[in-house]
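To: structure desk
From: M.T.
Subject: fold request, one chain
Message: Could you run this one when you get a chance? Sequence is below, nothing fancy, just the single chain.
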Amino acid sequence: QQLGSARSEEARIRTAVQDADLPFSEVTTETDALVQAMESIAIRAQRVYDYLASHDPRPVQARLSQLQSAGQGDGELSKALQEQLAAYEKLSDQLQRFYDEMEHITASLATVGAQVVSMSAAGQGESGQRELAGQVRDLRDQVNALSDGMREAYAAQPDTP
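Reply: Done. Structure tokens follow.
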């Protein structure tokens, strides 16, 4: 859903650039690269989502509670179950950060689109394009950092029974 919203904003930016009487090729190039980077992390986020959707933590929590009630809360099994729950929670937190960041980036893309229209109406030229392209480049750097975090979080998760 977030990726679809970003693609819609990309299309709006492209339309605004086409309608402008000024060349904004650097802005569209950076926007294309940003959305492409977002597509890459959306694939990773989907993997995390799928993993979490197929691993219900409630039975793990129930078994851990059972062990703790029986006075076996310090055993190896109990520790493994606690680690498993912590891994699920870490993945859930990472996925939520992904959603939040994607929403932020999509809102920022909407702002870039509005700025293209505003600059076109005001007749601003090359310097404004460079500034906007720099803003989009900064967003792409954020996406790349998020992508790295998602890759690390997903790779670090054991599939503990």
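Reply (cont.): The chain is about 85% helix and 0% strand. Let me know if you need anything else for the meeting.
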